[in-house]
Amino acid sequence: MSEGMMERAKDNPILSEVKPENAFHFFSEVGIYTGISASSLPQFSEILKTVDIKSIEFHLQRGDFEKWIRFLGENILALQLARIRKKAPQGEILREKICDVVSKRIEKLKSVLPQ
Question: Which residue, 60, 106, 107, 109, has most beta carbons within 10 Å?
Fold first, then answer.
């Protein structure tokens, strides 16, 4: 994260990094860790673009993304992800929908930060 982004992230804890133990750890199934973790919402957004689609499907079905994002304090995005989960898209269509809502929400959060 660039120094400027870190400074602005301090103004919005939702965009800030969390401790490693509170990071989102991507699994492909129960007990199978991918070795990939996200310690901030912006990092999560970037990882979603390339992580194995099986991991995205696994976590979405379980509501894991929503739980972690609520933990960050971001209820609007959690609700948007719940809507996607209920429609049950799969594969790259799922990745596209999730990446789109996450990136748009991050941009909205950044736009309300003091410049």
Answer: 60
pLDDT tens digits, one per residue of 21-48: 999 999 999 999 999 999 999 999 999 9
pTM for the whole structure: 0.84
CA 103 to mean position of chain CA atoms? 9
Percent of the chain as helix, strand, coil, to the nearest 5: 65, 10, 25
Q: Phi first, then psi: what are they for 65, rounded to 5°?
A: -60, -45
Token pair 């929503």 in the structure block, residue: 66
Give the model confidence (pLDDT) of 59-101 as tens digits.
999 999 999 999 999 999 999 999 999 998 899 999 999 999 9
Query: Counting every residue, how long is the chain?
Result: 115
